[in-house]
Amino acid sequence: MDVVVEVGGWEHQCCGEAIERDQLVDLECIRHRGADGRERLVESHHDHPVDERVRGRVVDVQVVHHGGVARHVLRLPSGGALRGVDEDDDGHLEDPWTGEVIPSTEEFLVTVRTPG
After folding, report:
1. What is the number of domains present in the chain?
2. Which helix or strand (DSSP H or E) is residue 20 part of?
3. Does the residue 45 lie in any domain?
4. Number of C-beta neighbours around residue 87 at 10 A
5. Which of 20, 26, 53, 93 has the lowest tally of Cβ within 10 angstroms?
6. Domain presence at residue 78
7. DSSP characters over 22-80
8. How far apart are CA 63 and CA 28, in angstroms?
């Protein structure tokens, strides 16, 4: 089953690790009801009790631009890289098929294929 997790904001910028397609992940998530009334899973690293752990292989990463328009990217750089303080990672977002550099925002969707 594929599970979509929202990743980003201050949580990811503070201490989020890079996430790449085909990577095995174990994400600690909280449930959040959005303005549209739908329940979502949001990755959390801080002071929130974990509602659900999402474990599996990353099959897609998307950056979400203003207005909710999502675009596929090769990987989600670490929070430090996105802030420009990781000397080993330039923090650029790239189109997975063309390598084109894509403008960054703070919000991402990570799709994880879970076992069973």
Report:
1. 1
2. strand 19-20
3. no
4. 8
5. 26
6. yes
7. T-EEEEEEEEEE-TTS-EEEEE--SSS--SEEEEEEEEEEEEE-GGG-EEE-SEE--HH
8. 20
